[in-house]
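Escalated from tier 1: iron/sulfur cluster holo job.
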Amino acid sequence: MDWPGKLTTLVFFQGCNLRCPWCQNVSLIDPRRGKEVDTEEVLRHVGAHKPIVDSIVLTGGEPLLQPSACLEISKEAKKVGLICAIETNGTASQALGSLLPYLDLVAIDVKAPLDDYHLYEEITGFTGLPKLEQKVRESLKLAIHSKVDVEARTTIIPGLNDDAETIARIAEGVQGVDCLRLQQFRNQRTLDPNFQKLPSPSREKLLKLARVAKQKGIKNVKIFTVEGGLETV
Ligand code: SF4
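Tier 2 regenerated the structure:
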């Protein structure tokens, strides 16, 4: 995760409840993989780097599938003076609600318009999870009404959400966030190999879509591409 100006320790949680066919964190999806580690060990590791790092980011996979570990780590991080963020797919809204008091930044995936269950299902791999987009909506609402900074993130995927109309609808659904970040789909390694045949959208394309989001009233829009890194539009 890019947290501008911060030196961060990333804590990766194994396992995800979604199966986005374009996912690039393929090795983190299966909960049976990875290695079981005590939160105490994680905290020892984080503490050891404290003089250098000033922040901690919970990421995955989906960290909120292990809510008590997230809580324990973020509470302790606060105690030792670290600031704390989470990257989440937004489907575990209840767990997010309990964690918010210990966070400084929440980055929530908004993969498709939040009123479009069918596209949300398609883009997340037809997991059969009910009311997926409603859970994400709930997560956003909780985060926006808390004191944390909220970043909505949309990966731009060719043929699924890379048109102006879809981005306009996404922007309409995330009003109130501190930032919307559009990030570039990369085709090197994907859960569904068919996605490796698709081109990564260009920086120019992302700039164009970012302007659409700005026209919809999102003041702070960023794009993240291999060509240009993180840029404010
Ligand atoms: S891209 Fe989708 S499948 Fe991959 S880790 Fe994120 S939410 Fe899970």
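The beta strands are 8-13, 55-60, 83-88, 105-109, 149-156, 179-184, 221-225, 229-232.
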